[in-house]
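input
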Amino acid sequence: MHSHTMRSIPMGIEEVVALTGKPSGWIEVICGSMFSGKTEELIRRLRRAQIAKQKVAIFKPMIDVRYSEDHLVSHNKQRIPSIAVKKAADILNQVKDAHVLGVDEAQFFDNSLLDVCRELANSGRRVIVAGLDKDYRGNSFEPIPQLLCEAEYITKTLAICMKCGNPASYTQRISKSSERVLLGATDTYEARCRACFEPPEE
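output
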């Protein structure tokens, strides 16, 4: 009796070429709550591509200046140079001849990011996107749901609940602000599990 296992690690471009005879583009999405290691995983994949001497271009929204204006920086201080863009369409103007594209904090872009990622993947590029899949109310955070439908590879990262230590997939805002987009780190947010998450009263 044969068993079938699902491939959880995206193939390298060399493997795709060997199987199909031509380069193939695809989209990878890394999503989860805050403090779940999304940016850390994005940086890991991009560094592997750089080690393989693939041309890499890395983008972040201009609004995200928490740790650096010109680097992706994870909460555990891993960092990699990046280009800050005002809107998703600006990515297309700065791709040049890069074959691997990284996009962090996707929730700070509007739904046009989906078309940008689709266009890049259709042109034969590998596109890796990271972002929050739920906002502080526990609702879907666009454009991640749309990107999940389009992606060939999906990674859901989990944090550790800061209340009880269980796996956490929610982001609890601990400040009083009611803005949907509010930059912050451990002073503003906590990772929470389903049982400990408290939706805001509003």
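quick obs: Residues 1-9 have pLDDT under 50 and may be disordered.
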